[in-house]
Design brief:
There is one protein chain. The protein is elongated and about 70 Å long. Helix 7 packs antiparallel against helix 8. The chain starts with 10 loop residues before the first helix and ends with a helix. Helix content is 73%, strand content 0%. The chain has 244 residues and is mostly helical.
Length: 244
């Protein structure tokens, strides 16, 4: 182990790019992050908009179901059985469909939507607008801090998730980047003998270096998106913290 780099090299990045296993995992992670985030933000905000209506029938029953589902889980086996009955095991859908409704952000979104003046929707209804038109043309534009905060947290969760890839997917082409990284970490990478240690020290591409390269590559999308959402993220967190 060296304190300073022995020499400048891009060999690890070249190895990463040329290895179809890592590239495929990187693309799967990007795809699940984009699709999973869009679906989760869309469905969570749509359900929250409906539950924010004070005249909604059986509203207390819906809230009771949400609170129970948020605090009690059926466990991994029950979750696996549900996924299998829905045909989601070993498919891309297992990454995005179970997380389409985020109960934590559902409660925050309900609180946020209640603060929007009802007069905005009523004036649109008088002009003949439907509820979908009101939601997309009025509610969503004034809820950008909420949408940005949800997108950042849900997107980060999708990008960093690896348990679903380990438990519910056997297809190697559907493995995510974080799963590949955990695979490398869990491997025995410490050389046991002097010859193995010397060979490891001479090699430019090692499991350690590939793991570090994957970590650097994995944070690039987050660093690229965060500056654009930062201004909405700060205001969204403040709004969510003062509303009950």
């Amino acid at each position: 182990m060296y304190l300073w780099p022995r020499e400048f090299t891009l060999g690890n990045y070249i190895y990463f790019i040329e290895d179809p296993k890592w590239v495929n995992a990187f693309l799967v992670s990007i795809l699940r992050t984009i699709v999973g985030t869009v679906l989760a933000v869309f469905f969570t905000s749509m359900v929250a908009y409906g539950l924010a209506k004070r005249d909604l029938m059986f509203r207390k029953t819906y809230f009771f179901i949400v609170v129970v589902a948020m605090n009690f889980s059926g466990g991994l086996i029950a979750f696996y059985i549900v996924l299998k009955s829905l045909g989601l095991i070993n498919t891309f859908g297992v990454y995005v469909i179970p997380s389409m409704l985020n109960l934590f952000f559902l409660l925050i979104a309900i609180s946020f939507f209640r603060e929007i003046p009802d007069e905005l929707g009523e004036s649109a209804r008088i002009d003949g607008a439907s509820e979908l038109r009101i939601f997309f043309s009025i509610v969503v534009p004034v809820s950008m801090p909420l949408m940005a905060t949800m997108s950042l947290f849900i997107g980060s969760g999708q990008w960093n998730s690896w348990l679903d890839s380990a438990y519910f997917v056997q297809n190697e082409n559907l493995r995510t980047l974080t799963y590949r990284m955990m695979q490398v970490i869990n491997q025995s990478m410490v050389p046991t003998g002097d010859a193995a240690a010397a060979s490891m020290s001479r090699a430019k591409v090692t499991p350690f270096s590939i793991q570090a390269t994957a970590m650097v590559v994995s944070i690039i999308p987050i660093l690229g998106v965060y500056p654009f959402l930062q201004k909405y993220f700060v205001s969204g967190m403040m709004l969510g913290s003062v509303k009950g």
